[in-house]
Design brief:
Blueprint lengths: L26 E6 L4 H33 L1 H11 L12 H37 L2 E6 L10
Antiparallel strand pairs: 1-2
Helix pairs in contact: 1-3
Amino acid sequence: MTVAPPPLGDWLRDDPDIEITRSRPERRTVVVRRVDLWSALKVSLGLYFSLFLVALAALVLLWFAARSTGFLDNIERLVEDFGFADEETFHFQGAEILKMTAVIGPILVVLGSLATVAGVALFNVLSRLFGGVELTVAEGEAPPAPKR
């Protein structure tokens, strides 16, 4: 019985004549003393804007689900029952709520990014005083030796 060659050939197989030596991964200690403010601003703007888009899409889907199940009608009726509005006069305006969210959301994105940059600037000042943050970095764990 003959064994068929692998479909991609033998180029993926290890050469049995080569002795592979495994060593422990090299570890280094790195001290982070400064973070670039421009980089922090770019990353935080991207992160907060992505979170805003995800939250906006989730809120729109939740709004449609709440409206179709009658949950919003129950809330509107509850507000009227508590006396905050006359009978059949209180209604949530979905388009207005979406417009306000679309206006306020990007403002919060910018404010959050500016707060992040302020935090990074504070980190830079404090790392000058206290020496930064020490990290230990490893090249990677050595895989187990193959069994022969």
